[in-house]
Amino acid sequence: MGGIDAFLKSSRWLLDALDIGLVAFVIYRIILLIKGTRAVQMVLGLAVMLVVYVVSQVTGLYTLQWLLDNFLTSIVLVIVVIFQSDIRRALMHVGRNPFFADVAYREETKVIDELVTAVVSLANKKIGALIVIERETGLKNFLEIGVDIDARVSSDLISAIFLPFSPIHDGALILQKGRLQRAGCFLPLSQNPDISKNLGTRHRAAIGLTELVDAVAIVVSEETGKISVVVGGRMTRDLDSTSLRRILTRLLDYGKGVR
What is the per-residue pLDDT for 132? Predict the structure, then answer.
């Protein structure tokens, strides 16, 4: 035991460096998990509350301090409730089996290729489309109506669904677990008053859904033929095939376990 204690004392700097490195890695992974989601705004809100709490202590604002003190005593429970989807996603990542990553990567890269091909084709023809890709948070509670498809992802099938004479071309196409599951779905529209008046129903539906869940929405404008991707209520517009493929690969991050 004496030898172990001596070793630990002599290697204290190495253990401290390892400790700091592990904490930095955990913080980095947390940032990756919440990047591009609504959790970022919630983290900022909590940070502001902590700053106000410190200010209330320094300035002697006792009533405000009492209110924040009671709130912060249950901060762990608050964090669990607010970030439940992100925590679930992190735990699922930890529990994933890395030995099947290459198989998943090859299969799901094909899904991205088929998506990009279909979306670019629709954009060139100025055919409107709304495609939603489920990630960790289930979409069942947010889907209204819709037609069951349960088919392999195919650019030809996607294009056919959104043709103007198709009876389900106006709704959203839903991808779940790498397959086309439902089409013609109605999504909740965003109530954000700051959204541009020039955005149509498809864009508002994409923003509205992604404000509630961590899904990825792809929108093709019927008026301009421009491609947009929406995540966490934020829209990236005017994408070409290369940028669309790059964004989808990063957001879905197939085969790497990070979403």
Answer: 94
Say which DSSP state 139 is in: -
With beta carbons less than 8 A apart as the criterion, state whether 178 and 136 touch. Answer: no
Q: Who wins on pLDDT, 200 or 143? A: 200
Q: How many CB atoms lie within 10 A of CB 172?
A: 26
pLDDT at 37: 55
Residue with tokens 């690969």: 249
- Cα–Cα distances in angstroms (integers) from residue 45 to residues 40, 51, 82, in the given order: 9, 10, 12
- Closest Cα to residue 254, out of 86, 115, 55? 115
Whole-angstrom distance, CA of residue 245 vs CA of residue 259: 15
- How large is the C-alpha radius of gyration of the chain? 23
Per domain, the residue ranges of the chain are 2-95, 99-252
Does the pLDDT of residue 243 top 90, yes or no? yes
Q: Which CATH number fits domain 99-252: 3.40.1700.10, 3.40.50.2020, 3.30.420.40, 3.40.50.2300?
A: 3.40.1700.10
pTM of this structure: 0.61
**Shortest CA distance to 153 belongs to which of 168, 127, 131?**
131
Are residues 39 and 83 in contact, defined by beta-carbon separation less than 8 angstroms? yes
Determine the Cα–Cα distance for residues 188 and 191; give it in Å rounded to an integer: 9
